[in-house]
């Protein structure tokens, strides 16, 4: 067994295909595939699922992934201790639904860089289902997703509650509805609307709050950042979680504002997800801690201490039935859960 064989398999897991992995590792695709095949024969396990559409890590490969990652991290530490500058530190890959970028993720990444210095981080925007799949397959290290009451998290993932907010109407500050303290569903239905595309939580919420009768003029986009830009351009109103707007530069600049929606008591919860594992790498743990710290700072700035983030792992072990998310866990579990991670 050679170290580079483990590095090649980790690259396939990280990049999602043999082609992209070979490009990242600067090796031909046949050579990479042959190296992984030899490793499979040595271990007596099928590490990749090879299909016409591409190759991905197999279930057996996922079961061994944590051990392989620990070996590679130990090799990197050895190289660094020996003064080698060529050690390959695996980039962190974070999947996010976009709404947490400005208020939590960006400042948390700044904290992570201050602690670790060098090292790459890739932020991938996607839908919650894509993020959950990436975490399960090992191509993502951490995920940030929004959930509505009753939504469920797969038992193979551990969830940590960061922020609980409410849907609000995001509109230009000079919009006529900005003169009202609250807006009704009928007020919103009469206006052009910027919706999230199918697969996003706020798409489901919009269909729910409008009872299937959407505004006559609608636009659709993939995330909150583009949605806010379209609202700022005067294309319509958008319904977003309040925590995705409060700290936005467009709000601070007086371009955008928000209004509560009458008669609606729905909550939107931002969760931090990771794959269930016995051990978590130090950079991932530090990023978790930084995200919790930023969540606490955000809530403290809003003077909402009762909604402090909670880091209680989901109870069931892998293979047990999916458990509905509880939106009322104890508050004082944050620091201890980070230490346990």
Provide the gyration radius in Å: 22 Å
Please state how the strands of the largest beta sheet are arranged side by side.
Answer: 4-3-5-13-7
Average pLDDT reading: 80
Q: Kindly, what is the distance between the CA atoms of the first and last residues, rounded to a whole number of angstroms?
A: 30 Å
Oligomeric nature of the chains: single chain
Summarize the amount of helix as a percent range. Answer: 40-55%
How would you describe this structure in keywords?
alpha/beta, Arc Repressor Mutant, subunit A, D-Maltodextrin-Binding Protein, domain 2, 3 domains, 3-stranded antiparallel beta sheet, 12 helices, 41% helix, disordered C terminus
What can you see in these coordinates?
- With about 350 residues, this protein is of the alpha/beta class.
- It folds into three domains: about 5-80, Winged helix-like DNA-binding domain superfamily/Winged helix DNA-binding domain (Arc Repressor Mutant, subunit A, Orthogonal Bundle); about 90-165 and about 270-340, D-Maltodextrin-Binding Protein, domain 2 (3-Layer(aba) Sandwich); about 165-260, D-Maltodextrin-Binding Protein, domain 2 (3-Layer(aba) Sandwich), CATH 3.40.190.
- The protein has twelve helices and 14 strands.
- The protein has helices at about 5-15, 20-25, 30-45, 60-80, 100-115, 130-135, 185-190, 200-210, 225-230, 250, 280-300, 335-340; strands at about 50, 55, 90-95, 120-125, 140-145, 150-155, 155-165, 165-170, 195, 220, 240, 255-260, 270-275, 325.
- A five-stranded mixed beta sheet has the order 4-3-5-13-7, sandwiched between helices. The protein has a three-stranded antiparallel beta sheet with strand order 11-8-12.
- Helix 1 (about 5-15) crosses helix 2 (about 20-25), helix 1 packs across helix 3 (about 30-45) and helix 5 crosses helix 11 (about 280-300).
- Mean pLDDT is about 80; it is low at about 305-310 and about 310-340.
């Amino acid at each position: 067994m050679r170290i580079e064989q483990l590095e090649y398999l980790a690259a396939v897991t990280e990049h999602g295909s043999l082609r992209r992995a070979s490009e990242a590792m600067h090796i031909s695709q046949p050579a990479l595939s042959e190296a992984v095949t030899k490793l499979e024969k040595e271990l007596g396990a099928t590490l990749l699922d090879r299909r016409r559409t591409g190759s991905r890590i197999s279930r057996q490969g996922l079961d061994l992934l944590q051990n392989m990652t620990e070996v590679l991290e130990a090799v990197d530490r050895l190289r660094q201790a020996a003064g080698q500058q060529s050690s390959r530190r695996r980039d962190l890959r974070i999947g996010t639904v976009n709404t947490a970028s400005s208020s939590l993720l960006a400042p948390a990444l700044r904290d992570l860089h201050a602690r670790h210095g060098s090292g790459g981080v890739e932020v991938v925007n996607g839908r919650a289902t894509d993020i959950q799949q990436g975490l399960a397959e090992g191509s993502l290290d951490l995920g940030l997703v929004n959930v509505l009451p009753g939504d469920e998290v797969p038992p193979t993932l551990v969830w940590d509650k960061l922020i609980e907010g409410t849907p609000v109407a995001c509109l230009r500050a000079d919009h006529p509805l900005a003169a009202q303290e609250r807006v009704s569903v009928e007020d919103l239905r009469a206006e052009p609307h910027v919706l999230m595309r199918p697969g996003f939580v706020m798409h489901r919420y919009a269909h729910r709050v409008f009872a299937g009768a959407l505004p006559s003029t609608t636009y659709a986009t993939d995330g909150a950042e583009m949605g806010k830009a379209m609202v700022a351009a005067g294309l319509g109103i958008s319904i977003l979680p309040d925590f995705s707007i409060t700290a936005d530069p467009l709000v601070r600049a007086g371009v955008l504002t928000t209004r509560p929606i009458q008669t609606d008591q729905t909550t939107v919860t931002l969760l931090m997800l990771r794959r269930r594992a016995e051990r978590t790498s130090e950079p991932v743990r530090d990023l978790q801690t930084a995200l919790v710290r930023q969540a606490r700072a955000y809530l403290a700035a809003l003077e909402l201490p009762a909604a402090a983030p909670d880091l209680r792992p989901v109870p069931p072990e892998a293979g047990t039935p999916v458990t509905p998310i509880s939106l009322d866990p104890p508050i004082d579990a944050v620091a201890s859960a980070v230490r346990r991670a």
